[in-house]
Write a structure and sequence with these properties.
Number of strands: 14
Shape: elongated
CATH topology of the largest domain: Rossmann fold
CATH architecture of the largest domain: 3-Layer(aba) Sandwich
Largest sheet: 6 strands, mixed
Bound molecules: adenosine-5'-triphosphate
Strand order of the largest sheet: 6-7-8-3-9-10
CATH class of the largest domain: Alpha Beta
Number of domains: 2
Strand content: 25-35%
Oligomer: single chain
Distance between the termini: 37 Å
């Protein structure tokens, strides 16, 4: 697998405060790589150092196999950036904004014209190309932000929380377009504190907290790495306490408590333990009124590693 970004021992300090503290990352060409972490974890700072927007205090960054500090100008030609804050001119039209960014990246003439049209078509803004940016809805502004970032057809696209403040439909549109860009060969680095977005689009993820990468791998690998299993909430028609005695004895059950009349059951990971509980309850003629199942996810991984929730 070809590494398109290699980061070693990255440190970034703001005066005395260490915002990025010895980060190592290897990002493969063609993947959608997620940087997940709570507010202030150091995701944007990491991204901004990789983009050369912030000077690093220590460590090395290589992109396309080249040392960033020596080949910054050349590398930047093949990199795009969708910043967290909207980065276009409010008083210009969509087409003028994207053309401006295309020119900044050195596009001219027919190539510029075609690339601008493609970027606006891809983001669904071609029909509104003459509209002034400040009159656009939140979702359209986010899409314009993306169009400006991809006009020069970068090989790597950094996206810093590109769905902040958009409605669910626009969010889904943005996530779908990221998948299409990726299928067309673009490597995407995506930061968010929404675990659901990472689960929807990313192949691998680095979880950050206090400037450090505390876990790195595919979503399945990270979930497999923790001991927390499935949690089952079960409401029975009657005989809840009798059910507790039964369930506690079953294989794979690590805890079973009565919380306000609802059974809170913690299970080891395998599916067969859940089947075992159901079979036993039915055999003993317990009547189930309702049940919910909570499988471990990236939030659980974060909780187990740090003792806190992603969005605390
Ligand atoms: N210019 C700055 N000067 C001083 N401290 C800063 C500066 N920028 C960021 N920080 C601090 O560095 C830490 C990491 O910030 P950063 O923006 O990288 O986090 P983040 O994970 O991207 O958070 P968010 O999800 O809120 O964007 C925070 O504690 C933040 O307050």
């Amino acid at each position: 697998m070809k590494m398109i970004i290699e980061v070693t021992g990255l440190v970034k300090r703001y005066k005395d405060y260490t915002a990025v503290d010895g980060v190592n990352l290897s990002i493969q060409e063609g993947e959608i790589f997620g940087l997940l972490g709570p507010n202030g974890a150091g995701k944007s700072t990491t991204m901004n150092t990789l983009l050369g927007l912030l000077k690093i205090n220590n460590g090395t960054v290589k992109m396309f196999g080249k040392d960033f500090s020596k080949h910054a100008k050349e590398i930047k030609q093949s990199v795009g950036y969708v910043p967290q804050d909207l980065a276009f001119f409010e008083t210009l039209s969509a087409i003028d904004n994207v053309t401006y960014w295309g020119k900044l990246y050195g596009l001219r003439g027919k190539e510029l014209h075609t690339s601008v049209q493609e970027a606006l078509e891809f983001t669904g803004l071609w029909d509104r190309r003459k509209g002034i940016a400040k009159t656009f809805s939140g979702g359209m502004k986010r899409r314009l932000n993306i169009a400006c970032a991809i006009v020069h057809k970068p090989r790597i696209l950094f996206m810093d929380e590109p769905t902040v403040g958009v409605d669910p439909q626009s969010r889904n549109n943005i996530l779908e377009s990221i998948k299409i860009m990726n299928q067309n060969g673009m490597t995407i680095i995506y930061t968010t504190h929404y675990m659901e977005e990472i689960e929807a689009i990313c192949e691998r993820v680095a979880i950050m907290d206090f400037g450090k990468v505390i876990a790195l791998g595919s979503i399945d690998e990270l979930i497999d790495s923790i001991s927390t299993g499935t949690r089952l909430s079960l409401e029975l028609a009657s005989n809840t306490d009798a059910a507790i005695s039964l369930i506690k004895e079953l294989e794979g059950v690590t805890a079973c408590n009565n919380i306000n009349g609802v059974l809170d059951i913690h299970l080891e990971k395998e599916e067969r333990f859940l089947t075992g509980i159901m079979e036993n309850l039915i055999r003993k003629e317990f009547k189930i009124k309702s049940m919910t199942l909570e499988k471990p996810n990236l939030e659980t991984v974060f909780l187990q590693l740090t003792g806190k929730k992603l969005r605390d």
